[in-house]
Design a protein that fits this description.
Chain lengths: ~270, ~260
């Protein structure tokens, strides 16, 4: 790439304008977050809102510290993250395998199509009690919930990606006498990597939804459990602390997928 | 013996709405090392013809015979260049050029070295590890040609191979391709709708009727000893070029009606 000193004055000004703009956006984003928390704290302190039902950031912090001191913080976080990652991994892998099978046989895909559409629109929460009866309360049922919430979207998005590959790329492979397996491994899979990554971005969020719902319904650990438990004993500080940690966890998981994307998709940069 | 014989071939496409007859009673013989251009109104079944020869489809009736034996499926003797380069954006230039060999399980140290040499010969040295989006249209088309030639076919099918390029590049790549194909002494069948391109590159131009496609006429292109072994651009300067152009142009227009 060009070295910096080769640029003209106008170009450097242009670059600086862009940098300043980006920095301003970042600063305002952070300020926004801080002011929300500050406003919340102040409103609670001056009694504009009822602390008993809204809690306040400092008390949420104390609640989190208490958890930490009792040595429970990492256990709850670990459960939620572990269940999500497990559900997400299983859901994604199984989803891709099923999507591949649907690509392989258009006939099977046509047969299953209406059922997949129906399964997609069924609220997966409704399956919760079934999983609990089958798998008992705890990790297995929660992971099953996470898989159930994320897998259908993965199947649909990935299968769609497989179907929308430029038919001429497949024709090109056929002119070389490629087998269906070769077409799949050398064209369909690599061409669908960007689609699979965007499916990951959606399904990581959905897995977290499934995990939390699973923890609501039946578990003794995890952020979802903390939220329900805190709600039952009217400890809003605990609820707020868990919700805030949940936001951080979801951001981290999403960021992990973005990192993965940067690692895999090298060719168009 | 003719390299390729197409005998009484017809092809019908079936869709739920309709039945389309793309080719009817099509006959053509191609001699070894001949360069044939096929021109015709759009939708006359030119591309269908190439797909049939390549063994991607089976004719409804008739037969296609390559080197004395009928074509039943894709064969390594035939190389097919599509309308666009269709380089895979996730593969480097070298890996793209090796695709055919890889699919045919003929990728060896020797063939890799050969492909590297071809990239070098055709002005792509230094780009082996680049990705397709970093190359110009003309360069990409050359990579596509190398990808086809690497599998060492002796019959090449070109389906409007330059149609995605701008005019300038098109002429330049046409020059390159012609030179490369002459060097390799390949038999070539090129489909195009550019009459000038057809005349300037071919030994024989076949004009098709509109659908269902049949051979309407043949023009043996002979520019005389002065031009016959010249490059396409040079041949365009020949006085006979205009005569061929006028004749083929007239025929194509009369077939529109």
């Amino acid at each position: 790439m060009n070295s910096k000193k080769g640029y003209s004055l106008e170009h450097r000004k242009y670059l600086r304008r862009i940098r300043v703009r980006q920095r301003t956006i970042l600063v305002l984003q952070i300020l926004l977050l801080i002011s929300v928390f500050a406003l919340w704290e102040i409103a609670a302190a001056y009694g504009w809102i009822n602390q008993f039902i809204t809690s306040k950031p400092s008390r949420a912090w104390t609640a989190a510290v208490n958890l930490f001191n009792r040595g429970e913080l990492w256990r709850h976080l670990g459960y939620t993250i572990g269940e999500t990652v497990l559900g997400f991994t299983v859901g994604t892998m199984a989803g891709i395998v099923i999507a591949a099978a649907l690509w392989w046989s258009d006939f099977i895909s046509r047969i299953l199509d209406p059922y997949i559409v129906i399964l997609n629109s069924v609220p997966k929460v409704a399956l919760g009690p079934i999983f609990i009866v089958w798998l008992g309360t705890g990790l297995k049922a929660v992971v099953a919930m996470a898989v159930a919430t994320s897998i259908i979207v993965t199947i649909m998005v990935v299968h769609n990606g497989f179907k929308n590959i430029d038919p001429n790329k497949i024709k090109l492979m056929r002119t070389f006498g490629a087998s269906r397996l070769q077409i799949f491994t050398k064209v369909v899979i690599p061409a669908s990597v960007p689609t699979m990554i965007s499916a990951l971005k959606v399904s990581v969020g959905l897995s977290l939804v499934g995990t939390i719902v699973g923890e609501f319904l039946g578990s003794k650990a995890g952020l979802g459990y903390l939220i329900v438990y805190g709600g039952q004993i009217f400890n809003m500080s605990l609820v707020m602390a868990a919700v805030i940690m949940l936001s951080v966890v979801s951001a981290l998981l999403y960021y992990l997928v973005v990192l993965l994307e940067r690692k895999i998709v090298r060719y168009n940069r | 013996m003719a390299k390729l014989v197409i005998k009484n071939v017809s092809l019908k496409y079936h869709t739920v709405e309709d039945e389309i007859e793309a080719l009817r009673d099509f006959n053509l013989e191609v001699e070894p090392r001949e360069f044939i251009s096929i021109v015709g109104p759009s939708g006359c079944g030119k591309s269908t013809l190439l797909s049939l020869i390549a063994g991607l489809m089976k004719p409804t009736t008739g037969s296609i015979i390559l080197d004395g034996s009928p074509i039943t499926g894709t064969t390594q003797k035939i190389g097919y260049m599509l309308q666009q380069d269709y380089l895979f954006e996730w593969r480097t230039i070298l890996d793209n050029a090796l695709l055919g060999l890889e699919v045919m399980r003929r990728k060896t140290d020797e063939s890799v070295a050969q492909v590297k040499q071809m990239l070098k010969d055709y002005g792509l040295s230094g780009f082996e590890h680049s990705y397709p989006h970093q190359l110009s249209g003309g360069m990409r088309q050359r990579v596509a040609l190398i990808r086809t030639l690497a599998t060492e076919p002796d019959l090449l099918l070109l389906d409007e191979p330059f149609s995605a390029l701008d005019y300038q590049t098109r002429l330049a790549v046409g020059e390159d391709v012609c030179r490369i194909l002459c060097q390799h002494q390949k038999t070539v069948i090129m489909v195009t709708h550019d009459i000038a391109e057809a005349i300037s590159m071919a030994d024989r131009v076949i004009v098709l009727t509109s659908r269902p496609g049949r051979v309407k006429s043949e023009h043996v292109i002979d520019f005389g000893p002065e031009y016959n072994h010249s490059s396409p651009l040079k041949r365009r300067e020949s006085p006979r070029f205009r005569e061929y152009f006028a004749a083929i142009w007239k025929e194509l227009n009369s077939s529109e009606q």
